Amino acid sequence: MSATHSETAGRAVPGWFDEAKLGVMIVWTPAAVPAFAPLFPAAEAWEQMTEDEAAVLLRDGLPFAEMYLNQMHVPTSAVAAHHAERHAGVSYDDFAAEFRAGMHRWDPHSWVELFAAAGIRYVVLTVKHQDGFLLWPSATPNPHKKDWQAERDLVGELAEAVRAAGMKFGVLYSGGLDFTFTPPPAAEDYENLPAAIADNPGYAAYADAHWRELIERYRPSVLWNDAGYPAAARMDEMVSWYREQVPGGVINDRFGPTPAGSEEELADFATLEYQRDYATDAPEGRKWESCRGLGSSFGYNRQETDASMPDAAELIHEFVDCVAHGGNFLPAVGPTAAGQVPWIQAQRLLALGWWLKTNGPAVYGTRPWTRVTGTTGDGLDIRYTQSPDAVHAIVLGVTNRPEVELDVRAEPRAEITLLGGGSDPLTWEPAAHGIRVRLPETPDAQPALTLRISPATSVQPASVQPAVQEAE
Fold first, then answer.
1. What is the pLDDT of residue 156?
2. Residue 463 has what pLDDT?
3. Whole-number Cα distances in Å, 45 to 36, 276, 304
């Protein structure tokens, strides 16, 4: 197992994780039955809100459909109003019963076929979210709710199908917040949910038993905890044991403070969520992963439309930006109650995979170059990545001319090719902006194109000079 250049607490992060670049999170819970949450406002509107306005929005308009159980107990929330209007007299337990009864319809191979076509390298299944429902027949059932788990071994079936397709398998578990131990609402202000973490000896033993069962039974390559972890569970001891059981496994940084120190000291990678500025937000000196729902919710939300989701080009640009800055990208799908990945989500994953069929060499196994960002001569953004033998210039958008100017300097020995454009070298020449590369033809309107410059030692960032000097 090779190791990446990134290290955590002196321990090299397993190389497969840094090289994978693209995973997928699956958030499938009983909340997929009502499948409702209000949509999040546009970024511009959110940024203009006052702190008080933002707090009210997060309390009443939380956009995460998987948090339906919490929100239906917040009297002023949009979910509470929706529930009173559409599901009067129905409890969340009723949703769970319907969800459990329909699990026989689920086909794990349909998910895996989609993920493989999307170019995904690892799959992280939410095996227990904050409603506490388990997606596997655990030997440690919920002590407060009968039948609060699947009879069918959904985790095992998906793990087997994922690995058969050559992908890694991981599990996501809400370790710190479980509404069967801490009745909802955990907090009316979502920002204060960590203060409501269940931290009693009974829950600590329950969570620890689950993690150990998941590790022994499914050997997950990723342990993805969420919402913190009870200190009494001695997460540091469990992590040490996990590393012995699964030497190539990785752990995220959301287990929370432990008696041995901070979660950063025990984790293999940092977790970002819905980040918009990787240049500012990405942690330095360690491996990280950026997660987000394909819309404003992680779980299935019937309110989502094409307009509330990034289009294919926007998603590809965000993915490329993430990878160029050194991260892995983890978009989330929220299947329907019957286990179908909604069409508007599948479309976006398939577009990502189609783009990767051509441009994957500029993504998989790469690392950040000397300079991450740049611009073409006509103002298009560029993201640079590096592999052992080449530098890749990924142009976000497409010029309407059969040439593109990159803000780099290249030695005469440099060879430039267009990924997907055949193996013939392209002609290029120095230009005021850096170098001007002649393309085989005017490209079609695709999300991004990639120019490969080899060898990597033949290219360096340009100190761009203005093309036209202003008059004195």
1. 98
2. 76
3. 22, 15, 18
**Sign of CA pseudo-dihedral 349, 352, 354, 360:** negative
d(Cα 157, Cα 136) in Å, to the nearest integer?
10
What was the pLDDT predicted at 190?
Answer: 54
Residue 117: closest CA among 422, 350, 451: 350
Is residue 341 within 8 A of residue 33, CB to CB? The reply is: no
Q: What is the pLDDT of residue 289?
A: 98
Could you tell me which of 100, 104, 92, 87 has the C-alpha nearest to residue 131? 92
User: Strand pairing of 222-226 and 250-251?
Assistant: parallel
* CA distance between the termini of the chain: 61
Strand, coil or helix: 329: strand
CATH 3.20.20.80 placement within the chain: 3-362
Q: How many residues are given for the chain?
A: 472
- CB neighbours of 470 closer than 8 A, spacing ≥ 6? none
pLDDT of residue 470: 35
Low-confidence ranges of the chain (pLDDT < 50): 1-5, 259-261, 465-472
Nearest to 322 by CA among 287, 346, 294: 287
User: What distance in Å separates the CA atoms of residue 10 and residue 451, rounded to the nearest whole number?
Assistant: 36
Specify the fold of 367-461.
Immunoglobulin-like (2.60.40)
Cis peptide before 185 (omega within 30 of 0): yes
The first and second tokens of residue 413, run together, are: 């020995």
Do 95 and 35 touch, CB atoms closer than 8 A?
Answer: no
CATH class of 3-362: alpha beta
155 burial (CB, 10 Å; 0-12 / 13-18 / 19+) is: buried
3-state helix, strand, coil in the chain (%, to 5): 35, 25, 45
Asked if residue 300 lies in contact with residue 341, where contact means CB atoms within 8 angstroms, the answer is no
Residue located via tokens 């080009």? 313
Q: What are phi and psi of 325, to 5 degrees?
A: -85, 0
The pTM (predicted TM-score) of the whole model is 0.94
Locate CATH 2.60.40.1180 in the chain. Answer: 367-461
Residue pair 192/177 in contact by the 8 Å Cβ criterion: no
Structure tokens of 377?
Answer: 């001569």
Rounded CA-CA distance 336/31 in Å is 9
Peptide bond connecting 30 to the previous residue in cis, omega within 30 degrees of 0: no
In this structure, what are the phi and psi dihedrals at residue 261, rounded to the nearest 5 degrees? 145, -160
Q: Tell me what pLDDT residue 10 has.
A: 56
Place of tokens 């990723």: 222
Q: Are the C-beta atoms of 225 and 254 separated by less than 8 Å?
A: yes
What's the token pair of residue 160? 């087997």
For residue 466, what pLDDT is reported? 42
From CA 126, how far away is CA 252, in angstroms rounded? 14
pLDDT given for residue 188 in this prediction: 57
For residue 8, the cross-strand partners are 11
